[in-house]
Design a protein that fits this description.
Blueprint (H helix, E strand, L loop, with lengths): L3 E6 L4 E8 L2 E2 L3 E4 L11 H23 L8 E7 L3 H18 L3 E5 H7 L12 E6 L4 E8 L2 E7 L5 H12 L6 H8 L22 H17 L3 H32 L3 E5 L6 H14 L2 E3 L10 H13 L17
Length: about 325
């Protein structure tokens, strides 16, 4: 059955490989990088070195567990961007070498498009058109998805991404990296209405998260003057309140986008789509608005090669291949 594609993802701090056959993902191998934890964030040079160490083993495992021989591959797919240049270069270079050795074509994939197409790995799959809120450490976008490869960004952050806001707030609180999942964990035990933070309201469907980060910083500074143990004593309520505000900012724009477009098929994607508060509130709003809600499995929320494989599958069907002189792009519009 055709096509059979090996996909490689190396945009940030996960080295991942996946094999897809005739549109069915056979596996999704991921090697994470714990080296960044002690630095409180991803260190680009360390990330690229870790990719070099991991990529051969990850690709070998993907091929072995798929039961497919290298000679059966029809194409090699890879993340071209957006992402960290050094990290991307490892994946692009490996894909080039393997494609040349096997004399098969290459398929470049846009990382953010792939996050959207993660919804086509398993059922239920959204029908077109649909709106997808893509939320991660580097991006916050509302994407109008017209078909598998035709997408339009109709709203996006004008400064920081929501994932960065989660992680920076966690760092301000003294929580270890990555802090976003910890905020989600503590938020489930707290009162989301305990504290309020000012927000920056942007025109149209755009977002801004720099204002709430600053408000949060000053809020903690002032409270710790009155009580040095404020964070330790109220961590659950602090996290619940912050998460409530960030989720509200996201879903307000999604509701407006649905009203403006008339589209009721609503999806979320990207690392922050694993947040339990966002998932819960999206489902509740969807019930109220009469939306059809699509939420990917947890394993397909964070960076992974299965989503790259799905995107590559549809590009293969269109004969959309790239040349061997392709280079990575740190910034790459959807």
């Amino acid at each position: 059955m055709r096509p059979v594609i090996l996909a490689i993802e190396s945009s940030c701090d996960e080295t991942s490989a996946s094999v897809i056959r005739n549109g069915k993902v056979l596996n999704n191998i991921i090697a994470s990088q714990a080296v960044h934890q002690k630095y409180g964030g991803v260190v680009p040079e360390l990330a690229s070195r870790a990719h070099q160490q991991n990529i051969v083993a990850v690709v070998n495992e993907a091929m072995e567990t798929s039961g497919i021989d290298r000679t059966e591959l029809d194409a090699i797919a890879f993340t071209r961007g957006p992402g960290l240049m050094g990290a991307l270069l490892v994946g692009v270079s490996f894909a080039k070498g393997m494609a040349m050795a096997l004399n098969i074509p290459m398929i470049e994939v846009n990382h953010m498009q792939a996050h959207v197409l993660a919804h086509f790995i398993d059922d239920p799959k959204p029908s077109f058109p649909f709106l997808c809120l893509t939320v991660s450490g580097g991006h916050t976008q509302i994407v109008l998805v017209k078909d598998h490869l035709t997408m339009e960004v109709i709203g996006q952050t004008q400064d920081d991404a929501v994932g960065e806001a989660f992680d920076k707030a966690a760092k301000i609180m003294g929580l270890p990296y990555p802090g976003g999942p910890l905020i989600d964990k503590y938020a489930q035990l707290g009162n989301p209405k305990a504290y309020k933070f000012s927000e920056t309201v942007m025109p149209g469907l755009d977002f801004s998260f720099s204002g709430i980060k600053t408000a949060f910083l000053y809020f903690l500074r002032d409270e710790k003057v009155k009580n040095p143990n404020f964070v330790d004593e109220h961590v659950n309520d602090i996290c619940a309140s912050l998460q409530h505000h960030l989720v509200k900012m996201l879903l307000t724009r999604v509701r407006q986008a649905s009203e403006q477009t008339g589209i009721k098929n609503i999806a979320i994607a990207g690392g922050v789509s694993a947040n339990s508060g966002l998932r819960k509130e999206l489902k509740a709003l969807g019930d109220k608005q009469g939306w059809n809600i699509f939420i990917p499995s947890f394993e397909y929320c964070t960076d992974n090669a299965a989503m790259i494989a799905v995107a590559a599958h549809y590009k293969y069907l269109k004969g959309d291949f790239c040349s061997l002189d392709v280079t990575p792009l740190a910034r790459m519009p959807i």
